Amino acid sequence: MAATPRGTSPVPPDARPRLTVLSGPSGVGKSTVVAHMRKEHPEVWLSVSATTRRPRPGEQHGVHYFFVSDEEMDKLIANGELLEWAEFAGNRYGTPRTAVLERLEAGEPVLLEIDLQGARQVRDSMPEARLVFLAPPSWDELVRRLTGRGTEPPEVIERRLAAARVELAAEPEFDQTLVNTSVEDVARELLALTNVV
Ligand code: ADP
Ligand code: 5GP
Question: In terms of residue numbers, what domain contains 81?
């Protein structure tokens, strides 16, 4: 057996805690899967994004999002405080940079749940990130889930479905695809990809 080359770590690169990016069309079940996974594995740190979107019933500031004004978002962007940001279906969303870098520095697994444009920015700035695409079992099921959630008016659903067509076409850009048929199965697969187990 060949000797380990000098300077290489005894830990295979894939065993390191890493940055995982979860993307997929609105309504596919990203939040549901992540919540399910984190119930049993809260050690996977989920970045809390800033958004100009209004809170949905039950959403809490600092837990689900940092709900900010347009002016506050302008400042976050201008001051370079976001690792990535994007406009999605009429609102802006962005990942606070410092918190993510601190967690990675501390060796903790980090999960970002962001849209396609954000995933592309992270891929460019942090190529070691693992990009995971969550796909619906079918287009009709995606429409059913997005409509059935009952959180957006019809015109917003239309915008989100238009974005979904673009996002589904970009699936080959991702390192991995998980099909969200069973929340439990996908949560388990996602956990494995974050290298916690
Ligand atoms: P996203 O975060 O991707 O926008 P959500 O997590 O809000 O999506 O899920 C959208 C809707 O689909 C919710 O009503 C959720 O309960 C439902 N849902 C999520 N995963 C599944 C699944 N595997 N089977 C059936 N319904 C699901
Ligand atoms: P929602 O309004 O349904 O919570 O989110 C809409 C879309 O914005 C989803 O695709 C979600 O993943 C994405 N999103 C949430 N936070 C961020 C973020 O910080 N950056 C980017 N680029 N997208 C985000």
Answer: 15-193
